[in-house]
Amino acid sequence: MAKIVSRIIKTRKAPTPSAPYSQGVQVNDIIYISGQLGTDPSTGELVGNGDVIEEAGRALDSIKGILEEAGLTMDHIIRTTILLADIKDFGRVNELYGKYFTKGTYPARAAYQVVAVPKNGRIEIEAIAAAGGIEDQAKL
Questions:
Q1: What is the pLDDT of residue 133?
Q2: Half-sphere exposure of 79 (CA within 13 A, CB side)
Q3: Residue 120: helix, strand or coil by DSSP?
């Protein structure tokens, strides 16, 4: 049986969890990033006074920081899930979201409207990334 190697990923570039979960967990070559709100890592408070774009940018910056701690970039993300307080915000969030990735290497994604986001936020984003060398088969 293959050996499974796990490690917890922690960084100051993302908010410290206020509940029993980790910012990220790496299991072999897969990194699971917990849902990130638009929370300022230094204050623990939501940014943007209800502005979904400011919250989305902060959440994506937190994900980026967690990946950097693991030695990876946003282009290592293979899947994201976006939870929105209002699906009508999807178009605006999508425009910002696309700027965080190299064009043509976008991850798989799902987006949902939910009844509530923690801390009365407007958005939460979680991600799964793959470590190691990523080859784009389309370019071979």
A1: 63
A2: 7
A3: helix
Which residues are CB-contacts of 5 (< 8 A; sequence separation ≥ 6)?
27, 28
Provide CB contacts within 8 A for 60, sequence distance 6+: 36, 74, 96, 97, 100, 125
109 contacts: CB under 8 Å, gap ≥ 6: 79, 80, 81, 82
Mean residue pLDDT of the chain comes to 94
Q: Do the bridges between strand 77-84 and strand 108-113 make them parallel or antiparallel, or are there none, so unpaired?
A: parallel
Tens digit of each residue's pLDDT (9 = 90 or more) over 58-100: 999 999 999 999 999 999 999 999 999 999 999 999 999 999 9
pTM over 0.90: yes
DSSP strand pairing (77-84 vs 123-130): antiparallel
Long-range pairs for 7-11: beta carbons < 8 A, 24 or more residues apart: 9/66, 9/69, 9/70, 10/69, 11/65, 11/66, 11/68, 11/69
